[in-house]
Amino acid sequence: MRILGIDPGYAIVGFGVLDYDKFRFTPVEYGAIFTEAHTDFNGRLKNIFTDMQYIIERYKPDCMAVEKLYFTTNQKTAIDVAQARGVINLAAALADLPVYEYTPLQVKQSVVGYGKAEKKQVMDMVKRILKLAEVPKPDDTADAIAIAICHGHCSNGAEMRKKYDI
User: Fold this and answer.
1) Topology of domain 2-163, per CATH?
2) Rounded CA separation 28/30 (Å)
């Protein structure tokens, strides 16, 4: 299964494309989409959308895993990130790509084994799971990879439950 993990944002969108065979993850590509701060916001959304279309077309994932949004303080940021997430989901929908959502707690639990793990622990586990020399940068990229790993673990568990009728 090829998984596209996304850490949504409007300044930086982290992405990670991983192949998962139920036993190991293999990195295919990872990086980030950057938009310029002084660009018109609609222009930023357009850049995110076209770059997402390119990534989906180039790497042909089987599914996309995205971090669920949660904000407690800055509503302006929440609305802007939600708009970016909307164009990301639109790119997936136009490619008939199923989208799965995971909370930060689910991602930490799946990657580290502890839902309240520190960010540094998640980053270290991403590096270890993929056998990388260093943690991918920027942090949004490593977060996107962690989301893809979470989906691999969660989808494998669902398949096992289905297989054994649990």
Assistant:
1) Nucleotidyltransferase; domain 5 (3.30.420)
2) 7
